[in-house]
Each structure stands twice: as C-alpha cells, then as structure tokens.
Design a protein that fits this description.
Low-confidence stretches of chain A: none
Number of helices of chain A: 3
Oligomer: homodimer
Strand order of the largest sheet of chain A: 2-1-6-5-4-3
Order of helices and strands of chain A: HHEEHEEEE
Number of domains of chain A: 1
Radius of gyration of chain A: 15 Å
CATH class of chain A: Alpha Beta
Chain lengths: 144, 144
C-alpha cells in the first residue's frame, strides 16, 4: 500500500456512503459519485452512464425497499496512489420482510476513484452476484 | 487521465490477455495476475483468492469451451497514477456452437492493477452479468 492516508480516506468515504444507503439519503448517496460515473449495477441493465442516469436507478432501488436496510462492507481492500484508487469488498445486502425476519445475501463490489478538488469521487462502480451456469440463476445463498 | 503512458501499457496488457484467453493459453492468462489476485468471476463462487485457486477455475472454464472463442473488450477505460491503476470495459464473450453458429453475450468487467518490478499486474478482477429481479435470472440478451 503506497499511501495509507488516502486509503484511510477512501475507507471512510465508503463507510459513510453505506450509511447513506441505509438511511436512504439520495443526496448523500449521490455526493459519493463523480458526474461521469460509469456504473455496472447488479440488476436490470448492463451499465448506467453518468450521475443523472444512475440517480434515477438509485431512486428506483430505494423505492423498492421498505423498512430497515442491511448494507455492510466486509473484507474491504483499498489501493491508492496519487490521484487514482480502487477498492473491492463483499457487500452484505438485505432487509426485514413483512414477518419481521431479516433476509440477506452477499454481493461483490468493486469501485474506482479519482482525487478531485472536492476530494475522492467514485468514477466507476460494479456490483454483482455470480450466476449458476446450469440454471442461469443468480446465486444468493453463497457464503464467504 | 494523469499518466497516458501507463494507461497505454495497461490497455496493451488487457488486449494481450484477451488474446491469451482466445488462445486458451493458461500460462499467458495467469502471467497477467499478481499472486494475491482477488477475483470476483461471473460464475459459481463469490470469490477466488490467490493465483492458485484462480488458475484452477480458469482451467475449468477453458475445459468447457470447445472451438473458437470470442473474447473482446469494448468501451475500455483505464485510469492510472503512480503504482495504482484500474480499468473497466464491456466484454463480448461467446463461441461457436455445434451447428457452427456464433453465440455471444455481454459481460461487464472491472480490474485493479499494481505496478511491480515485473510490470503492471492485476490484483483484482470482477466479471458479471446483471440479473432480472423477478426471475433471478442472469440477463444474457442485453445490448450496449
């Protein structure tokens, strides 16, 4: 790791962004991204290009979630040097169903950052679940 | 882009690696990775940790593919500075079926790199297809 201070900053940025997701705070969620974000999300589309398109997708996603939300980073690794950084982690995602039971699954997350006048901003994001080759279905039961 | 020469090097590295995949050349495929690669592949498992585990997975994948293989980068973007870089692209994957027809689909790819004494090496890789929320099925028909 070539720059511990930047890596620590990005770790803090990611943790704050996760808290914003749990709070369903769309402004705080979007403040994390650069205007030219290229996002590969786990669902629906191959990619979302630009903050405006991705904001609409986030609004759709937040609209689907009722009740308390689980959104946690595990096994986070950050690499940073100069004005470029990337991170990867396993993201525990879930929520409480109508019987009050917590349901969760693991997603994989990767992100790329650039240092700007306004601090580090995410210019790339990739969330996914792996799929089973025989059924073509996403594998939601896998454990790290 | 802060360092065009490094970004060009990584672009060349990725193109060579894609050629190695098309050639099913396991040694050339593995030369692209650092020993401590953390890979989130599109299928089967949440993650593969370390070159030994990922090599076994690659051997399994190459063993499944008969005939000519399609493996191409599109919309490639590289960010590099100092000893850290990342890239993302859409990867056209496919092959020729037993009727001689070419079948392909689009995957999303992200990768993280570190500059080593042996040149740039991939320390992180993420391949995926997005899934449909209603069916839980991977979406193989999406077009960029």
């Amino acid at each position: 790791m070539s720059n511990g201070a930047d890596e620590k900053q990005i770790q803090t940025l990611i943790e704050r962004w996760c808290a914003a997701v749990r709070d369903k705070d769309i402004e705080a969620i979007m403040a994390y991204y650069a205007p030219d974000i290229v996002a590969f999300d786990a669902i629906i589309a191959l990619q979302f290009r630009g903050a405006e398109a991705y904001r609409k997708h986030w609004e759709f996603c937040l609209g689907m979630c009722e009740g308390a939300m689980l959104f946690e980073t595990h096994q986070l690794v950050v690499h940073a040097d100069g004005a470029v950084a990337f991170a990867h982690w396993l993201n525990k995602c879930g929520g409480t169903d109508d019987k009050g039971e917590v349901k969760s699954s693991w997603m994989r997350a990767s992100a790329g950052y650039r240092k700007t006048a306004d601090g580090w901003k995410a210019v790339h994001e990739h969330f996914s679940a792996p799929f089973d080759m025989a059924s073509g279905k996403a594998l939601f039961e896998l454990q790290p």
